[in-house]
Write a structure and sequence with these properties.
It comes from Thermostaphylospora chromogena. The chain has 410 residues and is an alpha/beta fold. The chain is built from 9 helices and 29 strands. It binds adenosine-5'-diphosphate-glucose.
Length: 410
């Protein structure tokens, strides 16, 4: 028999480093890859793995996230399945969650309601495919209090992750340091660390006990990575699940092991660029492990030439339903639903979100443009760094980012 499992997705993060994309939506609701939202990836992994009782803990600017979940993620209620967004309910007084462990603590009733054998606690803002059953199986066989999914990452990124040290067997966690400033590399690869992916499987009682103990500690930040996992490491019950061992049905040598934390605008941009090569390292076309999302009933993308010599074209690009390329050109770009490129416009190496309109002769290079922005005729974006910095956000790597509904002067 498969064990009873409750999955909890932590979706309350603010995503400050993704501003302006998170100005009025929670990070897990940020659009990705034309037709998806970040949260679709974790929810697809869980549902493809047949974990069909899922609560999503939200708090910060959760309106568009709630709407997306309730429109898209409707599982069969008749079989007792659900994806339920649960907003911060201030059960324990008039305050928001202090940290992710506090969010879990305040929702312990959801765990008592289900009384599962294991509780999956997964983050909501990563791009990856993972079969969670393989992790749960290792966890159940080992009898650990918690099993933490881990992946090797460059040591330069150590201060963004929970960094894990294991005993010589490679399984038992002997140290877990949340976002350390001076991490030490792995014995076999000094330029790498073993990073927590922010996905955990807990033995239910061990999680309840740890959350209760943490809630009583006035010095705690009530954070899963910062407090709960280190507490379980101390008591000797924490193990690691190596993501390199995960084999997703339908995956290939090429896209196996792909995982991206899109916590910064540059990482968000790079993960998009990973989608568009002829043989992408992240393959959206694996039908044995689909990434689910919601669709408006839009017409197919249309390519027309209406200006004599100008043919509407797209190359090395993802083009969503409802797009019209009318005498414009898209190169190495992601066009979300309802984007329109007018004659003589050129969009290169860019991510255009829902309903962006690009005027006649406008040129866009290395940009992320959020929903509903109208790019005026003849505008230049991504060509003059100084002019761009004066008007828009520009990332460390020089990607121009224009927020939702922003009005662009010519
Ligand atoms: P971070 O992502 O920096 O590191 P955090 O900001 O706590 O940690 O976010 C983790 C998840 O919890 C995200 O999905 C976020 O949306 C959500 N979240 C945060 N606060 C919440 C709250 N109060 N209520 C509900 N949800 C909340 C974490 C781990 C690291 C690990 C990285 C991997 O702490 O150890 O290496 O993820 O990216």
């Amino acid at each position: 028999m498969t064990p009873r499992v409750l999955a909890i997705v932590l979706a309350g993060g603010e995503g400050k480093r993704l501003m302006p994309l998170t100005a009025d939506r929670a990070k897990p609701a940020v659009p990705f890859g034309g037709i998806y939202r970040l949260i679709d990836f974790v929810l697809s992994n869980l549902t493809n793995g047949n974990y069909l009782r899922i609560v999503v803990l939200t708090q910060y600017k959760s309106h568009s996230l709630d709407r997306h979940i309730s429109r898209t993620w409707r599982l069969s209620a008749m079989l007792g399945n659900y994806v339920a967004p649960v907003p911060a309910q201030q059960r324990l007084g008039p305050r928001w969650f202090a940290g992710s462990a506090d969010a879990l603590f305040q929702n312990l009733n959801l765990i008592y309601d289900e009384m599962p054998e294991h509780v999956l606690v997964f983050g909501a803002d990563h791009i990856y495919r993972m079969d969670p059953r393989q992790m749960v199986q290792q966890h159940a066989e080992s009898g650990a209090d918690v099993t933490v999914a881990a992946i090797r990452q460059p040591i330069s990124l150590a201060d963004q992750f929970g960094v894990i040290e294991t005993d010589p067997s490679g399984r038992k966690i002997v140290a877990f340091r949340e976002k350390p400033k001076n991490a030490v590399g792995l014995p076999d690869a000094p330029d790498q660390v073993y990073a927590s992916m922010g996905n955990y499987v807990f033995r239910t009682q061990a999680l309840i006990d740890a959350l209760r103990e943490d809630a009583l500690d006035p010095t705690s930040k009530h954070d899963v990575g910062g407090n709960i996992i280190p507490m379980m490491v101390k008591s000797g019950g924490a193990e690691v699940y190596d993501f390199a061992d995960n084999v997703v049905p339908g995956s290939t040598e090429r896209d196996r092991g792909y995982w991206r934390d899109v916590g910064t605008l540059d990482a968000f941009y790079e993960a998009h660029m990973d989608l568009i090569s002829a043989h992408p390292v992240f393959n959206l076309y694996n039908e044995r492990w689909p990434i689910y999302t919601g669709h408006d009933p839009l017409p197919p993308a249309k390519f027309v030439h209406n200006d004599g010599d100008r043919v509407g074209r797209a190359l090395d690009s993802l083009v969503s339903p409802g797009v019209i390329i009318s005498g414009g050109l898209a190169l190495r770009s992601i066009l979300s639903p309802r984007v329109v490129l007018h004659s003589h416009s050129v969009v290169e190496d860019s991510v255009l979100m829902d309903n962006v309109k690009v005027g006649r002769g406008a040129m866009i290079r290395r940009a992320i443009i959020d929903k509903n922005v109208v790019v005026p005729d003849g505008a230049r974006i991504g060509f003059d760094p100084e002019h761009d910095r004066a008007r828009f956000a520009v990332t460390h790597e020089g990607v121009v980012v224009i927020g939702k509904n922003e009005v662009i002067e010519r």
